[in-house]
Every structure is written in structure tokens, then in C-alpha cells.
Amino acid sequence: MQHGPAVRRRKLGAELRALRTSAGLTSGEAARLVGWHQSKVSRIETGASGVKPADVRLLLDAYRVGDANLRELLLVLAGSDETGGRHHWWHAYRGVLPPTYRDFISLESQASAMRTLETSVVPGLLQTPEYARAVTRAAVDGLDDERLDALVEVRLARQDILRAQPPLELSAVLDEAVLRREVGGPEVMGRQLKRLLEAARLPQVRLQVLPFTAGAHVGITGPFVIFSFSRTSDLDVVVLDHLTSSLYLERKEDLQAYTEAFNTLQIHALSPEDSLDYLAGMGDGA
Predict the structure, then answer these.
(1) From start to end of 186-241, where are the E strands?
(2) Which residues in 17-33 are b (16+ Cβ under 10 Å) and which e?
(3) Rounded alpha-carbon distances, angstroms, from residue 66 to 13, 70, 175
(4) E strands of 66-136, at which residues?
(5) How many Å apart are CA 105 and CA 245, to the nearest integer?
(6) Is it true that the peptide bond before 98 is cis, omega within 30 degrees of 0?
(7) Which end of the chain is less enclosed by CB atoms within 10 A, N or C?
(8) Is the pLDDT of residue 3 over 50?
(9) Could you tell me which of 47, 38, 40, 39 has the C-alpha nearest to residue 15?
């Protein structure tokens, strides 16, 4: 969790606190069992500090947690690469990526499913190299070529999760404005539309177009992402991106509101089959 988002650190701490309580131990007793000071246990449980996977193993052993799936999940939250999770390849770009972007990639790399509404640009997981370059150059002022190249490399490397085993399940609703905006010019946009067509045919991708004719809709206030995790819905989180930061929403009320909003958007959007035909028609005219 040292490099993970604070939302997961808090969730990990809360789960460890619940397991300690179930084991009938006080924080002081737990600390003595593993040879720590009580304050370290308290900091971990409140999410005030990160915790190494090895320390999580110590606590789980002390609490006599034998559930293999639960142990694996908590080790993934602690940042372990030994549990079958995807390796933290983005650490090689630490000097280039801001913390909020690293947090986002960390969540994305461990999620089992991602639902996203995009109102301005193609989702990063579906961008072509030329499109990614044009978007990055427009979004970040004063980029030199070396840093621009690195950011585009990161964007493309993220796409590997769609080919992983198991792959991330991606559901995307794209406002028609995403498809009409000529990012990088007509040729770049033409190739991007073809890429979307290819992606929409993948079994792990569900892509829907929300046409202008749908009128005002619940997502008109802005894009959002919902990450889901296979072993427990308690880790699900909504991410709202801003120009200089990202906001993580983890309350059940927020998750329910955004889940209902996404479901409504899917109802008003074209079906996946009609969206394919729509994209094909745009591609023919590109």
C-alpha cells in the first residue's frame, strides 16, 4: 500500500481492524503478538500509514485468518506482487507520473471491472498512439518530447490489462462528442474510430454510444469511472478526474448513485450492436 491510493489503504486498515476484533484481541495485544508498538497497529488500522505485505502476513497469522481468498485480497491491497496480481510496472515512470495518476493506475491494475462515462475523449484504454499523443500534448502544458513520449508509453502500457488473464472487463459509454471531436486531425481520428470498432468486438469490452439525440442526461455534469473488484464490493470506488487532482468516492451512497447513473446512461445509449453500426458508419465517412 505504500504506493497505493489512500482509499485502498483505509479499506485495508478497516478490514484488519475487523479481523483483530473478531479474533478477540485489543490493538495492544495484537502488537505484542507481532513484536510491534501499539501505535503501529493503530496507524495501519486508521489508514494513517502504509503497510508492507510481509507485515500484513504477520497480522493475518496472528489473527489466525485461514481463508486463502481473503488473505490474497488483503495482500493485493498491500501491494504484493506475489498473489497473481499484475506487477507494478508503472513504478519505472515514477519521475514522470504525478501521484494521482499512479493511484489511478494502481486501482485499474487490480480491478476486475471498470465502468466509465466519457464526455470529451476516448478512454485511455482504447486510444491509439497518435490519439494518445495529441490528447496528452493538449492536456499538459509545456511538455518536452521526452516526457511526452514517456506519458504516451504509460497510456499504451495500461492497455495490456485488456489482454491479461483474466482481462479487465470494460464497459464504456461514450458521448457522441467524443467521436465528433477531431483530436489530432481527420487521419488520426479515422484510425481511432477503427480502433474503437476493433475494441468493441472484444468479448471483455462493452461499448455504447450516447447520441446527441438522447438530449440532456444524468452524465452531463462530467465523466466518471467506477472500479469494481472481484472478491468484494466493499472495495469498489468511483473516481472523478479534475485538472490537477482526482477525487475518490467510496461511501456506499456515492457508489449507489453513480452505479444507478451508469445504468441509466446505458439504457439511453445505443445498444452495443447499434453502437458498432454507428462507429462503422462514421469510419466509412472518415
Answers:
(1) 205-210, 224-228, 237-241
(2) bebbeeeebebeebbeb
(3) 18, 8, 46
(4) 113-118
(5) 14
(6) no
(7) C
(8) no
(9) 47
Cell numbers standing for residue 190: 479515422
- Please give the C-alpha separations between residue 211 and each of 198, 199, 247, 266, 279, in angstroms, as whole numbers: 20, 19, 27, 11, 11
Which helix (H) or strand (E) segment holds residue 247: the answer is strand 246-249
Report the half-sphere exposure of 272 (CA within 13 A, side-chain side): 13
Position 245 scores a pLDDT of: 67
| CA distances for 87 relative to 165, 167, 205, 207, angstroms | 13, 14, 22, 27
Q: Do the Cβ atoms of 150 and 97 come closer than 8 Å?
A: no
Reported as a pLDDT band with limits 50, 70 and 90, residue 143 is confident
The per-residue DSSP string of 38-84 comes to HHHHHHHHHTSS---HHHHHHHHHHTT---HHHHHHHHHHTT-SSSS
Question: What is the separation of C-alpha 164 from the centre of its chain, rounded to a whole number of angstroms?
Answer: 15
Q: Give the DSSP H/E element, type plus range, for residue 255.
A: helix 252-268
- Residue 95 in 3-state DSSP? coil
Nearest of 98, 121, 101 to residue 109 by alpha carbon: 101
- The whole-angstrom separation of Cα 55 and Cα 93 is 26
Residues composing the chain:
286
Q: How do residues 47-93 score in pLDDT, each as one tens digit?
A: 888 788 899 999 999 999 998 878 877 887 776 655 444 557 787 88
Average pLDDT for the chain = 88
Rg (CA), the chain: 21
Q: Which residues contact 190 (CB under 8 A, 6 or more apart)?
A: 283, 286
Do 81 and 40 form a contact (C-beta atoms < 8 A)? no
**Which residues in 61-84 are b (16+ Cβ under 10 Å) and which e?**
ebbebeeeeebbbbbbbbbbeebe
